[in-house]
Amino acid sequence: MSLDINKLLRENIRTLKPYSSARDEFSGEAAVFLDANENPYNSPWNRYPDPRQLTLKKRVGEIKNIPITKIFLGNGSDEPIDLLFRAFCEPGKDNIVSINPTYGMYRVAADINNVAVNLIPLSVDFELYAEEVLTAVTTETKIIFLCSPNNPSGNALDNNEMIRIIKSFNGLVVVDEAYIDFCPEKSLLPVISQYPNLVILQTFSKAWGMAGLRLGMAFASEQIIDVLSRIKYPYNLSILTQQKAMELLADDTQKEKWVAIILNERERMIELLKAYPFVLKVYSTDANFVLVKTHDPRGIYQYLVNEKIIIRDRSSVSLCEGCLRISIGSPEENTKLIEALNRLV
Ligand SMILES: *Cc1c(COP(=O)(O)O)cnc(C)c1O
Fold first, then answer.
1. Which of 157, 281, 286, 312 could form a disulfide with 325 if both were Cys (CB 3.0 to 4.6 A apart)?
2. Is the distance from the beta carbon of residue 147 to the nearest atom of ligand 1 less than 6 Å?
3. In angstroms, rounded to a whole number, what is the distance separating the alpha carbons of residues 157 and 160?
4. C-alpha 81: how far from its chain's center?
5. Candidates 206, 217, 317: which one to mutate for ligand 1, based on the most atoms within 8 Å of Cβ?
6. pLDDT of 2
7. Same domain as 308, residue 215
């Protein structure tokens, strides 16, 4: 399939002349910076951050084994999601297709950008069928949003079905891999260069334990990454975020240790949760949370709130009748949840 990114872009974005910051126009070593109206005092916070985030991108490129020209870094994954709408979807005209249930942010970003959303139900076991998604595509469909492992169901979608969609669709396919560190073997990142219309989103908010930093990643062809870089706020990542992330990414063995503990705890929690009489089903999961079907989601949720334990009531979500979504915490936190549930039966 040949994809003309320029044809897919909104007209105003295609012809955009981006803001050029002082630090964009100069490259090299300088001793005196009198170009950006900064205050000479209060170093290092007085200086604008690197708008190209080169140091951090190099590190991310090493970790992910991908050239920096295919990496976009944003203020969480939320930023590239919004930028994709702003670049490719004409408000009041274009639409996107996604799955149901899935992460709520695609719809919110679509609503903010006045872009219509067509949600295609997954199967009752939250499986993806490429044909059903492709059938929903119209000439105005610019982006298909998939999420694997999917939130709130927890399961990874079938890679072959996703590839079928990527190969058949003449627009962008975004695969949100926010939870992929819990099942790295299922990532589509190794094949990203084969598909010019594929955008993969990942984040440092989950397995890496940096939700408070606000640091998300988009991986795609150089053409798509160029577009996102041209329309982002020039200084979308602060000095604090860039420096702290570099510090925390120096040691990537820590993440592996956390993932191992969380996966171990996940299996323990699944076995314990299955045994309660009020639990009808524990769905299989590839992420750091489990979806649990119960007789009385609201009652259990409220009981746990009174016990100062907060989980997520997803029972009003499509295909999630009776369901609670429970994140896997530390062994101590998980044990507190189990002790509270033991007092309920
Ligand atoms: C948590 C989550 C994210 C992460 O968003 P950030 O803005 O990077 O914190 C992205 N997608 C899904 C599906 C999530 O559940």
1. 312
2. yes
3. 9
4. 8
5. 206
6. 64
7. no
Q: How far is the CA of 77 from the centre of ligand 1 (A)?
A: 6
What residues make up the domain containing 306? 254-342
The set of residues, in sequence order, having a beta carbon less than 8 Å from that of 246 and lying 6+ positions away, is: 55, 56, 59
Q: Please give the single-letter amino acid code of residue 92.
A: G
Give the pLDDT of residue 20: 84
Give the Å distance between the CA of 107 and the centre of ligand 1. Answer: 14
Query: Are 327 and 285 a contacting pair, CB within 8 Å?
Result: no
Last residue of a domain, one of 202, 219, 249: 249
pLDDT at 199: 98
What is the predicted pLDDT for the residue at 150?
Answer: 98
**Which DSSP string do the residues of 246-286 spell out, in sequence order?**
HHHHS--HHHHHHHHHHHHHHHHHHHHHHTSTTEEEE---S
Q: Which of 192, 217, 249 is the last residue of a domain?
A: 249
Identify the pLDDT of residue 1.
54
CB 205 near ligand 1, within 6 Å:
yes
The one-letter code for the residue type at 319 is L
Which pairs count as long-range contacts for 300-304, CB under 8 Å and 24+ apart, including other chains? 300/324, 300/341, 300/344, 303/340, 303/344, 304/337, 304/340
Tokens 């003309």 correspond to 4
Confirm if 4 and 170 have CB atoms less than 8 A apart.
Answer: no
Task: State the CATH number of the domain containing residue 119.
Answer: 3.40.640.10
Q: Which residue puts its alpha carbon closest to atom 10 of ligand 1?
A: 178
Cβ atoms of 96 and 144 within 8 Å: the answer is yes
Average confidence (pLDDT) per 10 residues, the chain, 345 residues: 86 93 76 93 96 97 98 98 98 98 98 98 98 98 98 98 98 98 98 98 98 98 98 97 98 95 98 98 98 98 98 98 98 98 94
